[in-house]
Design goal:
Length: 269
């Protein structure tokens, strides 16, 4: 459980970024081994318009997660959290163990549309790191918007474009994934991963000639990556160019004798 000073510090940090994020929902939760206690607490909280959700973790500890759309200042949120501490004590609940925040309207972006017109406490580096964190938490749509803002204000452009490719790839949007990688190559023609992944994506959409072209670009950047030569071989095989497919499968095996995909393809040729 947070102490008061830690709680104030955490709230202050979050509210310093609220202009950047469209946040006005708090979602606290209580924990206890006794589910009955939490059910009784839930009934009381429902009368205050909180929506209860029960979750049981692996250690047999129950969590009562409650949700309610509210708009808060730092002061009102801190006051409410203190009230939850007192409520947990009065109901003999093991602990009130924190809170979370989210966007009250899930259709709205996390990143403010006014970002480019304002100055924020959030540094440019932190904005990029925030976008990366969204990606790492599989919030791909929101991450794409966050990286768009990085690109708009000209920070980490190459990396932001590449990260957007990752987002679109996870979302199954090959068209936009390819577009982002091509934009990366406009900035850095020697971006190995962009070339390699363009080869892979082109293969996936059965554009084998482009696949060969991009894999070959990748091979010129890094001639010691066996997966590149296997990619060339596979696309050449699909194009019916068996001699080229054979040469590149052998090259992949020279680099990595354990490349079973190249070995299997070579047998098929």
């Amino acid at each position: 459980m947070e102490n008061t000073n830690d709680r104030i510090e955490n709230i202050t940090k979050i509210f310093s970024h609220l202009e950047l994020m469209g946040v006005d929902t708090n979602q606290p939760f209580f924990i206890d081994e006794d589910n009955k206690k939490l059910k009784n607490l839930a009934l009381k909280l429902q009368k205050k318009s909180f929506k209860p959700v029960f979750i049981k973790n692996q250690e047999g500890i129950f969590q009562l997660h409650i949700e309610k759309a509210e708009t808060h200042t730092k002061e009102t949120l801190l006051k409410q959290l203190v009230e939850f501490d007192e409520l947990a004590n009065s109901e003999k609940i093991k602990s009130f163990d924190g809170w979370d925040i989210g966007n009250i309207d899930p259709s709205k972006p996390i990143i403010s549309n006014q970002l480019e017109n304002k100055t924020y406490d959030l540094t440019q580096v932190n904005l990029y790191n925030y976008a990366v964190e969204l990606l790492e938490n599989n919030l791909f749509d929101k991450a794409i918007m966050a990286f768009d803002k990085c690109i708009d204000i000209k920070i980490e452009i190459e990396n932001s474009l590449y990260k957007q490719f990752i987002c679109f790839d996870y979302l199954g949007d090959a068209e936009n994934a390819i577009l982002k990688l091509k934009e990366v190559l406009k900035i850095n023609p020697n971006h190995f991963k962009a070339c390699y992944n363009l080869g892979a994506l082109s293969y996936d959409i059965k554009d084998y000639e482009d696949s060969v072209e991009y894999y070959e670009k990748a091979s010129k950047i890094n001639s010691e990556d066996d997966s590149v030569f296997y990619g060339i071989s596979l696309s050449q095989y699909c194009l019916g160019n068996m001699e080229e497919a054979q040469i590149n499968s052998k090259r992949a095996l020279e680099i990595n004798p354990k490349n079973e995909n190249a070995r299997h393809l070579l047998k098929m040729i």
